[in-house]
Amino acid sequence: MQGVLKDGSEVAVKQLDLHSKQGQREFVNELSIITSIQHKNLAKLRGYCLDRDDRILVYEFLENKSLDQLLFESATGIFLDWPTRFQIVLGVANGLAYLHEGSQKQIIHRDIKASNILLDHKLHPKISDFEISKLFNQEKGFTSTVIAGTMGYLAPEYVLGGLLTVKADVYNFGVLTLEIVSGQRCNDRKDGRLLVHSVNLLMFSYAWILHENSSELEIADQRLDLEHNSEEILRVIQVALACTHENSASRPSMGDAVAMLSG
């Protein structure tokens, strides 16, 4: 929902499901996380309401809504060119690096996906929706019996064994990055295959693909200006593949991913 404060500024209003048994806990969790962090690539909390009948968060209003809408819905009439997509990838990477390495408590988001990336008037990204995030004081992670997040984005060690570490967010980021490069949802079918399956094929074949003549660009959105941006697009694809490595120990940290993206 959208609202207006007394000072005339527009805000986005989010109300949690009052019938959810976990609604109160989710709200308190999100509130404790959001109020403890400040970063240009994280959605800013303007206010909140917590009483018997209402659990409401009031965020800054972001004119361009979610990346999901602009990237996948042609009805918006907005085409994201490569410089804009790269800006979004790098911004999300910086936001995640802050959550993992820059805040007082290590925070694992657990649900990095296109619909949780909001865009301001300059199409700068802001990570939102911390309902299922986890706070840590160390990097060992923990094992969960309840898998939370969005299928298609989830790291294999988390899906199969419930092991949650910051490397699960890194995997989420890798999948999201491939969506941004390709312009396709990770769970859409292409040529009878899921995109995530195509990603795995590229990943397993990574060693020889690098010796091909720009083979990685086949996954890129062909509407992009590949001729003038091929080097940067290739670098981003390589970072995404590293982030979606099946072995979590082989994935880079988000800080390293930022450095790799920056060249």
Short description:
With about 260 residues, the chain is α+β, with helices and mostly antiparallel strands. Helices cover about 40% and strands about 15% of the residues.
Explain what this protein looks like in three dimensions:
37% of the residues are buried. Mean pLDDT is 80; it is low at 201-208. The longest helix has 21 residues, at 82-102. The chain starts with a strand and ends with a helix. The strands form five sheets. Strands 1-2-4-3 form a four-stranded antiparallel β-sheet, with helices on one face. It has two domains: 2-60, Phosphorylase Kinase, domain 1 (2-Layer Sandwich); 67-262, Orthogonal Bundle (Transferase(Phosphotransferase), domain 1), CATH 1.10.510.10. The protein contains nine helices and twelve strands. It has helices at 23-34, 67-72, 82-102, 156-161, 166-182, 195-204, 206-209, 226-243, 254-262, and strands spanning 2-4, 10-15, 45-50, 55-60, 106-108, 117-119, 125-127, 134-136, 142-143, 163-164, 189-190, 193-194. It has 263 residues and is α+β, with helices and mostly antiparallel strands.
Strand content: 15-25%
Q: Give the class-level CATH name of the largest domain.
A: Mainly Alpha
Q: Report the CATH superfamily of the largest domain.
A: Transferase(Phosphotransferase) domain 1
Domain count: the total is 2
The third-level CATH topology of the largest domain is Transferase(Phosphotransferase), domain 1
Shape: globular
Q: Which sequence of strands runs across the widest sheet?
A: 1-2-4-3
- The class by helix and strand makeup works out as alpha+beta
β-strand number: 12
Helical residue percent band: 25-40%
Q: What is the first-to-last residue Cα distance?
A: 39 Å
Keywords: ATP-binding, Kinase, Nucleotide-binding, Transferase
Domain Protein kinase: 1-263
InterPro entries: CR_Ser/Thr_kinase, Kinase-like_dom_sf, Prot_kinase_dom, Ser-Thr/Tyr_kinase_cat_dom, Ser/Thr_kinase_AS
Protein name: Protein kinase domain-containing protein
